[in-house]
Amino acid sequence: MFVYRLTRSKYAEDLSGFGAALSGGRWNKKGRAVLYCSESPALSLLEIVVNIPPMFQPDLKLLTIKIPDQKIFVLEKEKLPANWYHYPAPRILAEIAEEYYQKQEIIGIKVPSAVLHQQSNILINPKSNYFDEVKVLSNEPFIFDPRLYRRIH
Asked: Contact at 8 Å (CB) between 24 and 108?
């Protein structure tokens, strides 16, 4: 399976999940290292755009990563609480995901995107027994189209 990660250039070589562990997120508790990836480059972009202030154009890299898809657990929307996509994220989501991070034979969890419900994000567990099978296939500069920052008046 190929997944995509859009990240600041200075962190493009870091697959430790340390950044997510610092503050926690929708699908991880503070202290839990996780790599947030998406099933498409476009979804990776949307996930970044909803979290950055207007007119901020960070120096980003787009990583294409190969992971063993037979080691991915799929978390179905139907098994999530009705408010799973709300912002701020319900704390229960990180608790649900934690159960799967503790299973060392699972390299990641496929979860629905709160930004685009029809697509998924893949959360890679750097502590998995199979993390050595994660391979970065490309690491390319990503240039924002300035039209993404136009304000609607």
From this structure: no
